Amino acid sequence: MKKLKTDLLVIGAGSGGLSVAAGAVQMGADVVLLEKHKMGGDCLNYGCVPSKALIAAGKQAYTLRHGADFGVADVEPEIDYAVAKDHVHQVIETIAPVDSQERFEGLGVNVIRESGIFTGPDTVQAGETEVTARRIVIATGSAPFIPPIPGLDEVPYLTNETLWDLRERPDHLLIIGGGPIGIEMAQAHLRLGSRVTVIEGETAMGKDDPELAKIVLDRLQDEGMVLEEGALAEKVTGKDGEIKVHAKDGRSFTGSHLLVAVGRAANVDGLGLKEAGIKYDRKGIKVDAGLRTTNRRVYAIGDVAGQLQFTHVAGYHAGVVIRSILFGLPAKAKQNHIPWATYTDPELAQVGLTEAQAKKEHGINMEVARFEFQENDRAIAERKTTGLIKVMVVKGRPVGASIVGAGAGDLIGVWALAIASNLKMSQISGMVAPYPTLGEVNKRAAGAYFSPRLFESDMVKRVVGFVQKYLP
């Protein structure tokens, strides 16, 4: 049995764990990193990276079909689904060296390719090695949640982990789950030539602003997606190539392939958390505002911490715990400034409170500033005028922003910065954006907040009149 002592032990080499390990070792800490599966975790291998690569392939096919308005003849593309998957894997392989074991060992991290099991409050067993650490960070992420639907275990089904190995294009893809993963993969497969039916037990895109979500869902249905809402899956039957999903209300849907995309489950099993005095539940590990667990030596970050499940959240959490672990400084993780995006076409992005949430929390003190993409010159030039931004404002400061439209995932960054820095709408209005860009949408939204104050105010008109009359 090999025994190691270290300053910091990181369990999990996904986005959050790698950020902690890289930051800590480069600032002088002794770091051990455990990873039993693939370096880079879910984001690189099964999530963000491959999904966006497949979405890009679908977008290319869509572009070829819709060139006539630009004077370029529409062409029905010849799609090779297997080659599209080759593209996905090439993208993963291009990024992989950044997250590789070799790179992190080059930085000075001791990488052990084993799972970690707590044997005490500060000790973890990793294969034939016992690691004792001053501080430990659990960054084991999450995995696809597989609902207990009768018959599901008797038919072949896909998840976001197994989809990327599929080489033959689905003729008719059934998707259980109308959240971001399900909707993104629905549009990608529609554009690559599959028929797609999305089966959602409640309301598709239910966590987003309903007005903006409807714009996305309408576009997908125009492209051919069949959306079945209020269809709670009760049973699955069939065989390879002919799978049937039976809904509780009597509806049934038959397709050639089935993708299960109903959410994520925190990876807490097999860690020996009870041995370390760490409390957890089905949502994840219990943490305080500083991401510390019930064992003060141990932190949890990213998906396993039971908060917002996004790669950039894991990276943000890494920065929070590094401040505490390395410098002994107080640090707290916040959520109100965390943006997220669904990479459909058009994209849908959110930060802070939605309109409904802001109304509930702030009542009559909340105002909504709106601006339509159809009034943006760049959007008009590129025929990407389907879109809308809504900014929720309380006492002159944004408390939330919702954007649907081209580049929404990029545009939301301004509002994430504004909320994180407690900026005023006047500061956003004072920003100068290059013309013509979609970035002007943000400035115009801020302008929409001030327009009634400037152009419909009798006081403003009286002041202007006074200046024009009496000042030389």
Automatic annotation (TrEMBL):
<keyword id="KW-0676">Redox-active center</keyword>
<feature type="domain" description="FAD/NAD(P)-binding">
    <location>
        <begin position="7"/>
        <end position="317"/>
    </location>
</feature>
<keyword id="KW-0274">FAD</keyword>
<dbReference type="GO" id="GO:0016668">
    <property type="term" value="F:oxidoreductase activity, acting on a sulfur group of donors, NAD(P) as acceptor"/>
</dbReference>
<dbReference type="InterPro" id="IPR012999">
    <property type="entry name" value="Pyr_OxRdtase_I_AS"/>
</dbReference>
<feature type="binding site">
    <location>
        <position position="303"/>
    </location>
    <ligand>
        <name>FAD</name>
    </ligand>
</feature>
<feature type="domain" description="Pyridine nucleotide-disulphide oxidoreductase dimerisation">
    <location>
        <begin position="338"/>
        <end position="445"/>
    </location>
</feature>
<dbReference type="InterPro" id="IPR001100">
    <property type="entry name" value="Pyr_nuc-diS_OxRdtase"/>
</dbReference>
<feature type="binding site">
    <location>
        <begin position="177"/>
        <end position="184"/>
    </location>
    <ligand>
        <name>NAD(+)</name>
    </ligand>
</feature>
<comment type="similarity">
    <text>Belongs to the class-I pyridine nucleotide-disulfide oxidoreductase family.</text>
</comment>
<protein>
    <submittedName>
        <fullName>Dihydrolipoamide dehydrogenase</fullName>
    </submittedName>
</protein>
<dbReference type="InterPro" id="IPR016156">
    <property type="entry name" value="FAD/NAD-linked_Rdtase_dimer_sf"/>
</dbReference>
<dbReference type="Pfam" id="PF07992">
    <property type="entry name" value="Pyr_redox_2"/>
</dbReference>
<dbReference type="GO" id="GO:0050660">
    <property type="term" value="F:flavin adenine dinucleotide binding"/>
</dbReference>
<feature type="binding site">
    <location>
        <position position="200"/>
    </location>
    <ligand>
        <name>NAD(+)</name>
    </ligand>
</feature>
<keyword id="KW-0521">NADP</keyword>
<feature type="binding site">
    <location>
        <position position="52"/>
    </location>
    <ligand>
        <name>FAD</name>
    </ligand>
</feature>
<feature type="disulfide bond" description="Redox-active">
    <location>
        <begin position="43"/>
        <end position="48"/>
    </location>
</feature>
<keyword id="KW-0520">NAD</keyword>
<dbReference type="InterPro" id="IPR004099">
    <property type="entry name" value="Pyr_nucl-diS_OxRdtase_dimer"/>
</dbReference>
<keyword id="KW-0285">Flavoprotein</keyword>
<dbReference type="InterPro" id="IPR036188">
    <property type="entry name" value="FAD/NAD-bd_sf"/>
</dbReference>
<feature type="binding site">
    <location>
        <position position="263"/>
    </location>
    <ligand>
        <name>NAD(+)</name>
    </ligand>
</feature>
<dbReference type="InterPro" id="IPR023753">
    <property type="entry name" value="FAD/NAD-binding_dom"/>
</dbReference>
<keyword id="KW-0560">Oxidoreductase</keyword>
<keyword id="KW-1015">Disulfide bond</keyword>
<keyword id="KW-0547">Nucleotide-binding</keyword>
<feature type="binding site">
    <location>
        <begin position="140"/>
        <end position="142"/>
    </location>
    <ligand>
        <name>FAD</name>
    </ligand>
</feature>
<feature type="binding site">
    <location>
        <position position="116"/>
    </location>
    <ligand>
        <name>FAD</name>
    </ligand>
</feature>
<dbReference type="GO" id="GO:0003955">
    <property type="term" value="F:NAD(P)H dehydrogenase (quinone) activity"/>
</dbReference>
<dbReference type="Pfam" id="PF02852">
    <property type="entry name" value="Pyr_redox_dim"/>
</dbReference>
